[in-house]
Amino acid sequence: MADDQLPDSATQTQTQNSQIDWSQHNTPSYIPTIWGRLYSTKITTTGRHCWSNSRRPEYFDLIQPEFTVGRALTCSYPVKRDVIKESIIKNISKQQFRITRDMSEPLCPAIITDLSYNGTFVNGELVGKGNCRVLDDNDEIAITHVFVKIFIFKDLLKNEQDQVPKEISKKYYISRTLGQGACGLVKLIYDKVKCTKYAMKIIKKSRLTNGQINHLNDPEKIMNEIAIMKAVQHPCIISTEEVFDSRDAVYIVLELMQGGELFDKITKQGHLSEQFTRFLFRQMVLAVKYLHSQGITHRDLKPENVLLESQGDDTLVKITDFGLSKFVGEDSFMKTMCGTPLYLAPEVLRANGQRSYGPEVDVWSLGVIFFVCLVGYLPFSADYNDMSLKDQILTGRYRFSQAHWRNISLQGKLLMKRMLTVQVDRRITLNQILNHSWMQDNDVIIRVEKLLSHKQASSGTELSVSSSCEDDENGNSGPVTVIRLVATAKRPLSDSFSSCEPIPKKLRIGMSKKHDDTTSTTSCCSDE
């Protein structure tokens, strides 16, 4: 409808609004975000209420990042005798409680902190002086006593509490999405009582992904591998806090790693120093050594599955995704090859769904990670056109750039070479890696042991980090208990590595295309 056709009442309203706009020169140019609201509780006939008369406020809009209640005049809402019953006021602290919300963090929950001596209660439960708790929609807040209910909190920001089973939303606040993959997604969540952050993996049980059967989402395999995750306990392996199994999905609550992926650390810095690599790599080797001692072969080690506890240099390393979607069996076996071929050992490709392989595959993957940490590019890639990716791996022809390896120590090069050895019985073992000359740095060893001991003490778990010296540097390895992974059917391996899984993250090649700067070197040749 055109303006001249508006009804008289609409035209009059429009004129009045125009006059108001012109007259209010000091009106703010932005609309503040009201992230929550505190509704005052209704006055009851039993007398068990805070408000002394009908002058009680209907509600308070929460706009600022902090809202305080107490007797002090400096509080956002100072309690007064003409509104709150005098018998209650005398028991209220100068600062009774504080509600905060970090508006710079998407979907961050509102947090209530008890500042009182006589108690602040949420839904009938005492918070406790100095303690905090996550506030959820329609939570009841009481002061001085459980029946003295003063406010009902209304959350006005969008959250996803109704997207998960009630058993989960009752205990955890569901926040933003941290990542998403073929099997599901990862959410940031908060324990409502402890206010502790966790990561929650949501794995859909649907066997269809983009119209194709996704063998990674087999419910039986998911639950079997979750049992493995809950059984392992090591400071350098991500811990599983809790698992919820519903009809449509499995929800796995994991500890949150604030430092992000090793992949992101490498891409941000280009490459890591030998000293820092030595510090991180020792932890990785100890973690994989523990898994092997428990009869578990990771089979999908890569920088994306190595997480850092913090952004600092003394961060703890955590291995993750070692059993979540890769299980003994032909289907997931093939998916492992199709999903991340850049880090696969030659014997996995040679098995071709017919033969078995052992835990030595993890040593090869560690070698690729080691390579990437030191120089910032991949040893094997489909982008190297002189040979297919499959043939590069099967022959151990990694891309060796003199410009990138020029400043790497000889022992570092030799260790990389021993890990990327095609012949399994000549490949270095985990014990040999720990005892390799490149790894012998007292400062690093002490720092790692201190980190692990501190983590062990705080978690109450037992840890053995002793290493055997039964293997010599160049000889065959001694007796090893091998957990064989047997394919149950015969299927050929495609050169295309096609898969419904997301394409693996790519590191920069970062080297000259000139032939004189780059040479291909086999990892099977004798040590220098």
Structure in words:
The protein has 528 residues and is of the alpha+beta class. The protein has three domains: 36-155, Sandwich (Tumour Suppressor Smad4), CATH 2.60.200.20; 161-253, Phosphorylase Kinase, domain 1; 258-522, Transferase(Phosphotransferase) domain 1 (Transferase(Phosphotransferase), domain 1). The protein has helices at residues 8-23, 86-89, 166-169, 219-231, 262-269, 274-293, 330-339, 346-351, 360-375, 389-395, 402-405, 410-419, 430-434, 442-459, and strands at residues 36-40, 59-62, 66-70, 77-78, 97-100, 110-114, 120-122, 125-126, 132-135, 139-143, 149-155, 172-180, 184-191, 197-204, 208-209, 212-213, 240-245, 249-255, 260-261, 306-308, 317-319, 397-401, 518-522. The strands form six sheets. It has a six-stranded antiparallel β-sheet, with no helix packed on it. The protein has a five-stranded mixed β-sheet with strand order 4-3-5-6-9, with no helix packed on it. Helix 6 (274-293) packs antiparallel against helix 9 (360-375). The radius of gyration is 30 Å and the shape is elongated. Mean pLDDT is 78; it is low at 1-25, 324-339, 461-504, 508-520 and 522-528.
| Overall average residue pLDDT | 78
> What Rg do the Cα atoms give?
30 Å
What's the CATH architecture name of the largest domain? Answer: Orthogonal Bundle
Helix run count? 14
**Number of extended strands:** 23
Count of spatially separate domains: 3
CATH class of the largest domain: Mainly Alpha
Classification by helices and strands: alpha+beta
Q: What is the share of helical residues?
A: 25-40%
Shape: elongated
Query: What percent of residues are in strands?
Result: 15-25%
Largest sheet: number of strands, sense, barrel closure: 6 strands, antiparallel
| CATH third-level topology of the largest domain | Transferase(Phosphotransferase), domain 1
